[in-house]
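Exam revision sheet. Question 4 asks you to relate a sequence to its structure. Input first:
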Amino acid sequence: MTTQNWFLEHEQILRLSCFVSILLIMVLWEWFAPKRQLLLTRRRRWPHNIGLVILNTLLLRALFPLAAVGVAVFCQQSGLGFFNLIEIPLLISVPLTILLLDLAIYGQHVAFHRFPLLWRLHKVHHADKDYDVTTGSRFHPIEILLSMLIKMAIVAILGGPVIAVILFEIILNGMAMFNHGNIALPYRIDDLLRRVIVTPDMHRVHHSVITQEMHRNFGFNLSIWDRCFVTYQAFPKHGHVEMEIGLDPTLSDKQTNSLPGMLSLPFRKS
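Answer key, structure tokens:
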């Protein structure tokens, strides 16, 4: 059995085990070394955020049972996509595919901020008045479906190795939990890490109520894209502890912290 076939055969258990492991680590980390005091208790926020995650997962499984990995398998079998048309060793094509997918996710994130119709969907993510591991998976179902369609199209164009797509999905999911974590990292460690990857302090700037800061630090995995495209901001104006997180202070908790409120938020007059 080849390495790719092994990854494909064990994809579900790999992704689930990585998700559960990283989630448990982040929950414990937030418990013992929080960066900020939460405005709402976990008991009030988590059921709604996690409920949205469950809804999104069920929708994706129902509408796109094979998702991006399935597209990668189809392209590999059919010889479609850039990497299936040329001879490139896996040692090169795998990291290159992951790199290009990460760039695409950065570009997609920028687009969801720039275009008003897309922003209506994406603001569900930003409306969370707290910032912790559950914020990283808090997205409107329509945004999740659009994101999957975009990802599937990019995978089809690239024709990247199946193992690269599986690894990217695991990395993206894990990094979303990490860089949304309400965790305290020593400054020197954070400064060292953010030279390569997006840290919680770096991404927290992106969740500021200040519009200028909200349009900074779009990266999820690698920090290089924000530096290359001049969207990087090192620190929030009011500091990480005092900064205000969320979208609109006038929105009620019922509008921002309930499943019906999150689902209806994009369709309200703004």
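Marking note for examiners. The CA atoms of residues 56 and 141 lie 5 Å apart.
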